Predict the structure.
Amino acid sequence: MEYISSDTNIWIDYMVIGKLDLPFRLPLTYLMNQDAVNDELLSPKGLKNQLLELGLVATELTEKEFFYGMEIAQRHSKLSKYNCSALAIAKKRNIVLLTGDAELRKVARNEGVTVMGTIGILDRAFEEKVITPEEYKDSLNKLKENNGREVRLPIKELQERLDGLDKKLI
């Protein structure tokens, strides 16, 4: 089983399009710091329980992760303590960081951490055939329709995937 350290924002994207279960179809275990689970997954109501039922694993920080997270927070004041925790888990456990937060992605890459986001999970689900081309296209369209509101993704990347999929399906 492959582990991924998760930030909060991608779950909102999948909830908005009605596909919160989609990432859990992949053979991945999503880890999130226990404090982030308790403090950040409060809205919308029920999100925390849904994610835990689907398989999100709340985890405690190790001592090394805690101190590394504090170090990151001191160097990068724009990151929340939960962003720093997610990065610390990814860095110290040598696993992928799942986030859509632009600043966190930048810091993670500078720290040598591999980053994946909402679109990356969707692409992987399609490539590994855990979703059909129709569900992939529907998900991309729903993300595009909600972009600029609850969802904030690069519209160009969404459109490129839709255009490429249309060519493959013709």
Observations:
- The beta strands are 2-6, 28-33, 57-59, 96-98, 115-116.
